[in-house]
Amino acid sequence: MITNDRRHRTGQTRLVEKNWFLQQWLDHFDKRQASLVNELGWDKSRANFVYHGKQPYRRDLVNEIAAWLQIEPYELLMDPQEAIAIRYLRAAARSISEGSPLPASTDPAPKSGRTPNARRAKPSVKAA
After folding, report:
1. Fewer CB under 10 Å: which end of the chain, C or N?
2. Which architecture, in CATH terms, is 20-100?
């Protein structure tokens, strides 16, 4: 996804490519921008800049967040559903090569104990 990044001082517009999925991963684990402050000890300004992609990510930043979320650093660079699918594919390939049963899931569980995106789940509506 490419978005416009307006430079107010110079009046120039440049294109910035969205290249990591921090907000999606935080949502997956039912965390918010405030979690960066409360759980990592960041100040509000840093959390805001990182959360909204205003600060370029660096290796130490990616490693810190990945360790906190208990995922691999490279997984922050892909959508959570894609990362989970790749985890399952690797685990299935390993199981097949070892002759063991296929894994049930490789989804990193949210730390809160809730299922991913549980707060957004909508009840099913049966037709009358």
Report:
1. C
2. Orthogonal Bundle (1.10)
